[in-house]
Amino acid sequence: MLQIQENVSLKKFNTFGIDANARYFAEISHEDELVELFADPQWLTTNRLVMGGGSNMLLVKDFEGLIIRMNIRGIEHRISQNDVYVEVGGGEVWNDLVNFCVDRNYAGMENLSLIPGSVGASPIQNIGAYGVELKDVFASCRAFEIATGTFRTFTKEDCKFGYRESVFKIELAGQYIIVSVKFHLSLKANINLKYGAIEQELANRGITEPTIEDVSKVVSHIRVSKLPDPSTIGNAGSFFKNPVIGDEQFRIIQQQFPDVVNYPAGEGLHKLAAGWLIEQCGWKGKVVGNTGTWKNQALVLVNHGGATGEEVYSLSSQIIDTVYTKFGVTLQREVNIIG
């Protein structure tokens, strides 16, 4: 029987460790519980938020509505020649899935190691790291339509994936709840060493012909060296998107800052490293009240203890302002602001 709790603290459910309360709280462990939940018309009109691992959000105040925490589990896999199809419950921890695949030599996810969060949230954000995005391994997802109480399967084309974007963040925002995701992997590894940091760390380890396990370990090592562990200090990983700008604006910036860190982003486009921009503005490792930026990566905002969501948001606004003043580039928050 589905239980609806009242006045629940969300501190342990968000990786920033923000102590905000939810007026109502429901944990979903099976698809049928979603049908049961929304059979009650009260919840169709109540403000609501779907939560997985709570790793890509900032709660700026108490949530005066219904929190739906997705906890549907299970991993099933099927092999057809060199193709591997893995179907996963939305409540599974993302990195547990990556480890499951790497351990079985199912290639494609290794560059996405140690990204925090749940599987169900991954298509919404089109998560990505080190030259790979979710869309590169995505086959389809199954989602519950709140308005009709029915389920629908979304193909890759249906999802309209973009850089940290999908149809679930734009035109269908708030209309569907992802219950499971199917991935298309391979028994034949196509090792992606697009990012120099991976190549360098492999070289440091004397590895010249890396396996997907090698890549996963190296990516995990790099992430740990740069990013703080949410279990020891509150954070949501990268707080800002890497901005994409055109040729003309890039030339202007490069003339003034020849060592600007950038990557190709399509014809006539350049992706700038947001962490580098923030660091050049003097923010790296800076402490502001109970919050600040991480000492090893300026792209990460942290809760040093007792910070409110409003404090973290205020800090992010100051960073956006100073980066724009110095570079003429407007940073966008990657973390979802709730409240």
Automatic annotation (TrEMBL):
Keywords: Cell cycle, Cell division, Cell shape, Cell wall biogenesis/degradation, Cytoplasm, FAD, Flavoprotein, NADP, Oxidoreductase, Peptidoglycan synthesis. It catalyses: UDP-N-acetyl-alpha-D-muramate + NADP(+) = UDP-N-acetyl-3-O-(1-carboxyvinyl)-alpha-D-glucosamine + NADPH + H(+). Residues 17-188 form the FAD-binding PCMH-type domain. It is found in: Cytoplasm. Its main location: cytoplasm. Its cofactor is FAD. GO terms for molecular function: UDP-N-acetylmuramate dehydrogenase activity. Its EC number is 1.3.1.98. The active site is at R164, S238, E334. InterPro entries: FAD-bd_PCMH, FAD-bd_PCMH-like_sf, FAD-bd_PCMH_sub1, FAD-bd_PCMH_sub2, MurB, MurB_C, MurB_C_sf, Oxid_FAD_bind_N. The keyword Cytoplasm applies. Cell wall formation. Belongs to the MurB family. This is UDP-N-acetylenolpyruvoylglucosamine reductase. It comes from Mucilaginibacter rigui. The gene is murB.
